[in-house]
Structures are given as C-alpha cells and as structure tokens.
Amino acid sequence: MKNEEKVKKAKSNETAKTAKTKKNSKFSAFSVVLLTVVLVALCIVSYCVIQTVRYKEYTDKMYYYGYNEFYSNGKATAYKKLSNVDMFRVLIGSLNNTTKLDRLALVEKTEEMTEDDVWYQTASKMNLALRILDEDMDKNATKINAVITAMRLLDSAVGVDVEKTTLNMSANKLEKFAATDADYIAMAVTLGLIENSDSALSNKKIIRGELNKLVIELVNKYATVYYKDKYLDESGNIVKNDAYIVTDKASLPSNEKEFPYIVSSVAKNEYEMPLMVENEKDFISPKELFKDFGKLYGQIDDTVANYLEKIVNVNYETITETKFYNDINRYSIYDYNRDIVDMYVDYVIENKIALKGKVEMLLPVLYYSGERYNVRAKITIEVLNSTTNKDLLFGDHGNNVEYNGKEITMYVDIPMSMSLNSKTLYVEPHCVARRLVAKTDSVKVEKVQGGVIYEENK
After folding, report:
1. pLDDT tens, residue by residue, 176-213
2. What is the pLDDT of residues 382-409, one digit of tens each?
3. Radius of gyration of the chain from its Cα atoms, rounded to whole angstroms
4. E-assigned strands of 193-232?
5. What is the pLDDT of residues 239-286, one digit of tens each?
6. Which of 120-134, 216-230, 364-378, 439-453 has the lowest mean pLDDT?
7. Pair 349, 318: CB distance under 8 Å
8. 364 upstream amide cis, omega within 30 of 0
C-alpha cells in the first residue's frame, strides 16, 4: 500500500511540474510576442516622429499655401506614403499656382471614372506620365519620377531657363529615360535637386515629406506661390513676372515672421511699415490670414487696384458723373451716395483737376485689423493740372487733405469688407489719405487712421 501511495504521489508531482512548465512556456511565448509588438510599435512611432520633425518646415508651408488640399485626403502628413496619382495632383496644382485644382483637369469625369482616372489621363495629356502606367497610379512614387515631373511642369508653367549640367551617369542607366527626360535630369542636377550620379536614377520610393520639400524649394525659387506670375504691360502684352521668394537673411524684413512669404517685388521697408491694429484680441496677421485668404489674392488685387486706379486717374476734360459713379461703385461694398459723387465731379471740373496715377498692390501684406480687412498699396500720382492743392481725390472732401508738389507717393492700407452672399472682398468707402502707413511730405491730413499718426497731423 505504501509503495502504491508513493507511486501515486510521484505521478501527481510530475503532472504538476508538467502543467507548471507548460504554463511558464505559454507565458514566455506571450511575453516575446508582446515585446515584439511593443518594439515594432515604438519603431513605427519613432519613424513617424523623425520624418515629421525632418520635414516640418516644408509641411507647414504646404498648409500655409493651401497645397495640402491637392493630396487626395487633404493632408500633407510627412511620413505617409506617396502614390503616383498624388504626386501628379500636388505638382500640377502647386507649380501651376492654383487653388482650384479641378480647373486644370484636361478630361471630364464620367460615371465610370474615378478621381485617379481623371488625373492619370490629365497627366498623360500633359506628357507627364511617360514612365508610369495606369495600373501603377496607386503605387508608391519614386524620387526620380517626381523630379522629372516637376521639371516638365516648371518648363511649361513658368518657363525655367536652367543651364544643363554635364551628366556623370552611365549611358545604359540613362537609356531607360526619354531623351527630353535626360535634359530635365541635367537641369535638376544644376538646381541641386538630385546628385550627379547613377544612384539618382534608382527607383527609390519617397514619402510625402520629400515631395513637400521638393515643392516648397521650387516654389521659393520660382515664386510660383505668388498668385500673379504674369501681368499685362501698357501695350497689353503678357510679361512674365520675374519676382522671386526672398530667402537671403540679409534681405528679409525684421517682421518676416508675420508673413506667409517674402516676395522680391515688395521692398523690405514696405513689409516693415506698421500694420494697423484696431482690436488686438481679434487681430489676424498676414501669415495666419493667408491660410484662408491666399486663394482670394487675385480677386483682391483686381478689385482694389481697379478702384484706386479710377480715383487717381481723373481728368476734368473727360470726367462725367454717370461714368465715374459706375466706375467706382462696382468695386465698393456699399453704393455711393450719388450726390457726393456728383459734387466731386463738379469740383474736378471747377478746379481743372487732371491726375495721372499708378497703383502697385503689395500682397502678401493683407491682414485683419480686428475690425476690417486691409491690403497695402503703393500709389504714385502726377498732378498734370489743378488750380487747387486740396481734396484732389474722391473721398477727400471733409478731411481737408493737402497735396504738395507735382509728384505724390503714398503707402496706404485700404480697408475692405466681405459681401454677405459670397466670399468676395470689396473696398470700404474711405479717404485714401487717412490710411497712410508711412510718412510723406507730399500729403497733409488732419488725422490719419492708418498705422502711423504723424506729429504734425495730430
């Protein structure tokens, strides 16, 4: 009996040991799996953080300029993969300087087509998809394809004139590219976008952060973010705007952080003239306002410039009450009082006033003072004839404005309001001289409402 009990006890102990071993083994296996999952998760998070930090400067600019909207999900997230179709969308939109990407589509979407189909066919019609097949549109984009696409677009949209660097690349490596692509590769080498070696021709995949960097570097160099890259000269001929984004620290204004970008067509001191703050709590800087209003720059330029040009170009021999009223009224947020307009026209004729003026809009100096939107302009006026030096411009009446000399230059921040039924800004009725933001001996007014109030005007 005793032996049987010993055997049973031994078997029981052995069973317990086996169960414990299995339990420990399961626990160990679970620990290994858990540790692996944690390490993988940490690696992924670490990778995302590193890419976010590395491309933060460029990603932030993508949002400032509104180019993030060109990505299919509207996000320029640096660590996300980049598909070929998104590469096309972002480069086509940003380098053609538009906020309405759909306007650039060269095919009309049908019920059978997806958005990817639209942009693949558009890219094909633009000769951008020479090396990418329809079925590859969803696949990851490569750096060399992104660079070639960018250079092709710059050539057509901006007209780049870049010296072609002699390539130190193997002939057999270049054979897989079209002849014109080799030229674009040489231009990209000159611009420092890729290295002058065979490694640049590899099919290395890129992420959105890398495309963000490429876009912003090209935007800065060729000022494609500047909404008006072409303008008409006095003869009506299209002239390319040679303005560029200023990056040289010595040339940047002291308040550069207040603006979305610094463009060379606006002088350093024109940025540094004070902004008008009427309500500090609700004030919105040009940089902040650009996120939502950058797409309105063209409309604002046309509206304000046309309004100002009407009032700085008057001639007593040709002015009529009806025409002048119609000319200024279309750009104003409110209808002008016809009696006031008629009174000014009579004043011009009576005092034989003839003015020849020029208006330069100084965008991106556009901000919200806390009460109204303001855009900066430079006005130069030549007084061709006048028997008086007072109240020469429409809106001056009642403000006792004196103009001294035959050549007058004014820097002014013009107030605007938004119409209720559309996102369109119009000029608020005002006296231009009371919106001065820089001192001038040419103009004297009792009170200035702009950013500067002169001692002699107080």
Report:
1. 787 778 888 888 888 888 888 888 888 889 899 999 99
2. 999 999 999 999 999 888 899 999 999 9
3. 32
4. 230-232
5. 445 566 777 788 899 999 999 888 888 999 999 999 999 899 999 999
6. 216-230
7. no
8. yes
DSSP 267-335: -HHHHHSPPP-S-GGG-B-HHHHHHHHGGGHHHHHHHHHHHHHHHHS-BTTT--HHHHHHHHHTTBSSP
Phi, psi of 96 (to 5 degrees): -95, 0
Burial class from Cβ neighbours inside 10 Å (0-12, 13-18, 19+) for residue 369 reads buried
Asked if residues 404 and 410 have their Cβ atoms less than 8 Å apart, the reply is: no
Return d(Cα 263, Cα 274) in angstroms, integer.
18
Alpha carbon 301 to its chain centroid, in Å, reads 15
DSSP 181: H
The angle subtended at Cα 149 by Cα 145 and Cα 155, nearest 5°, is: 145
pTM higher than the cut 0.70: no
Tokens 């034989």 locate to 352
Can you tell me whether residue 37 is helix, strand or coil? helix
CA–CA gap between residue 308 and residue 340 (Å, rounded): 17
Quote the strand ranges of 198-272, DSSP E.
230-232, 238-240
